[in-house]
Amino acid sequence: MSNLDVVMRYADALHEYDVEGLVAEMHEQIVCRYPQSGEVIKGRDNYRAFLEAYPGLPQTRVDSVDYREETFLIPSALPGQPGVTVSGVGDMFVAQSFFAYPDGSEYYVVTLFVLREGKIAEETSYFAAPFEAPDWRAPFRQAP
User: What are the boundaries of each domain within the chain?
Assistant: First the structure.
């Protein structure tokens, strides 16, 4: 089983809100960081309790995977929104995704994963809300 398999199973479990599936891919001494809020969650049991108390994970799910040289694009289940891109090599992976939460908030999310002993040992997530581009940048924009 490769580290990529571990990360992909973790992504599947997140998008299905499968706490047991998430925990199965975690190292016993996992450290989860949310730098913007200053939170650090340590240990698999504590992280499990955190997930069980979570008031609702975002709406998004893994539909399929498109392999392209160490980069995997997972199309979004949300119409008009980007899918999840997972890329990495060795013990380090990056996931870029779009989350729509039950309260109506939306975020682009970048998550950094470090694996150890075939499990996710570190997870650091950064969240950014969508915003309108300022008019002064219009001459420089290009269509996606």
Answer: 3-127
Q: How far apart are CA 132 and CA 136, in angstroms?
A: 12
Amino acid in the structure at residue 22:
L
Q: Are strands 26-34 and 71-74 parallel, antiparallel or unpaired?
A: unpaired
Which carries the bigger pLDDT value, residue 17 or residue 53?
A: 53
CB burial of residue 136 (10 Å; 0-12, 13-18, 19+): exposed
- For the chain, state the CA radius of gyration: 16
How much is the pLDDT for 82? 53
Q: What is the tens place of the pLDDT at every residue in 69-81?
A: 444 444 444 455 5
Banded model confidence at residue 61, pLDDT cuts 50, 70, 90: very low
How crowded is residue 26: how many other Cβ atoms within 10 Å of its Cβ? 21
- The letter for the amino acid at 101 is Y
Tokens of 66: 């498109």
| Dihedral pair phi/psi, residue 126, rounded to 5° | -115, 135
Spatial neighbors of 135 by CB under 8 A, at least 6 apart, are none
Q: According to CATH, what is the number of the domain 3-127?
A: 3.10.450.50
